Amino acid sequence: MTGLSGRTGLIAGMLAALLFAAPALAQDKPALNVYTYSSFTGKYGPGAKVKAAFEAQCQCTLNWVAADDAGSLLARLKLEGETTRADLVLGLDMNLAAEAEATGLFQPHGQDSTTLTLPTPWTDDTLLPFDWGHLAFVYDSTRLATPPQSLKQLVDDPKGPKLVLQDPRTSAPGLGFLLWMRAVYGDEADAAWAKLKPRIVTFTKGWSEAYGLFLKGEADMVLSYATSPAYHLGAEKKTQYKAAAFAEGHYLHVELAGMTRATKQPELAKRFLAFMLSDAFQSLIPEGNWMMPAKLPAAGLPASFAEVIKPEKTLLVAPETVRSQRRAYIDAWLAATSR
């Protein structure tokens, strides 16, 4: 009798556990896995606020999976292929767009891109912008009173400012400047690099290292973004950091998001892309990612962006050209800067 009673009690306990577990299982939230770069989700990035804002409306869990930068994101996606757990990738850039789409791992975003406020129209139906900025050389006006007024002036003056740049093989802005030089100089870009080389302090692996060296006084100017002075003004209340406006125009950097074909949550992924273009997301970009929003929020830009330079001309090399010529451009750059 004792054995029967014990088994009866065990069965009753199991039934009770199942009954209590049922509501919990019913309340399990779907998860959306988004690959992005580390600074977006880092201490000073907008990732935490984006996650909170989206989860408040989606009844889901947003999981960030961080890589170093845009190149690392694409490399990881290529490695994982169709087995990737990514539902979305947020943080690819314009210069990698054609290469990313050529993988066949993305599907159409399904969003209306006609309302975007980029300097150029957007027609790609696969990758969708979430922010943008012009590349620019930043300087400390208390140390450099008269910055160059054009890229050619920067290159041609043998006594011009010393520079810290990023390696185009590992850095998105570094690749952007390589293309900026091509856009301005064409086939004469290699000669321009050779002329500029004596004043280049170093090529760093990424943006953070380069900017850190500049702030330590290791160089007069650093390749960054036209929006960088807004950070110093908005976060530090410092007014001496400026971006030099160049007569030839400035190279455009656009950051992109895409939905993978492997996603197990296609409707939730589309919902995130729609949210990405909403004021709730876009208003976090200026003073969160310190870039220009892809779709200007109704409230406009914060006061810290009032003096951001507005280039008269936007320079851009077609993504298809970047894909086909990047290796050749980098080889030529290596040859020109190693002489």
Q: What does it look like?
A:
The structure is a single chain. The protein has 339 residues and is of the alpha/beta class. It contains 13 helices and twelve strands. Strands 1, 2, 3, 4, 5, 6, 7, 8, 9, 10, 11 and 12 form a twelve-stranded mixed beta sheet that branches. Helix 8 packs across helix 13. The longest helix is centred in the N-terminal third of the chain and has 25 residues. The protein is globular and about 65 Å long. The N terminus is likely disordered.
Low-confidence residue ranges: 1-8, 21-26
Order of helices and strands: HEHHEHEHEEHEHHEHEHEEHHEEH
In percent, how helical is the residue content? 40-55%
Number of helices: 13
Based on Cα principal axes, name the global outline: globular
Rg over CA atoms = 24 Å
Structural class: alpha/beta
Largest sheet: 12 strands, mixed
Write down how many β-strands occur, each being a DSSP E stretch of 2 or more residues: 12
Residue share in β-strands: 15-25%
**Gap between N and C termini, in Å?**
93 Å
Whole-number average pLDDT?
A: 92
Keywords:
339 residues; alpha/beta; 13 helices; disordered N terminus
Record the SSE blueprint:
Layout: H1 2-26, E1 31-37, H2 38-41, H3 47-58, E2 61-67, H4 70-80, E3 88-93, H5 97-102, E4 106-107, E5 128-140, H6 151-156, E6 163-166, H7 172-185, H8 189-196, E7 200-204, H9 207-215, E8 221-225, H10 228-236, E9 241-244, E10 250-260, H11 266-276, H12 279-282, E11 292-293, E12 314-315, H13 319-337
Parallel strand pairs: 1-2, 1-3, 6-7, 6-8, 10-12
Antiparallel strand pairs: 3-10, 4-10, 5-8, 5-9, 5-10, 5-11
Helix pairs in contact: 8-13
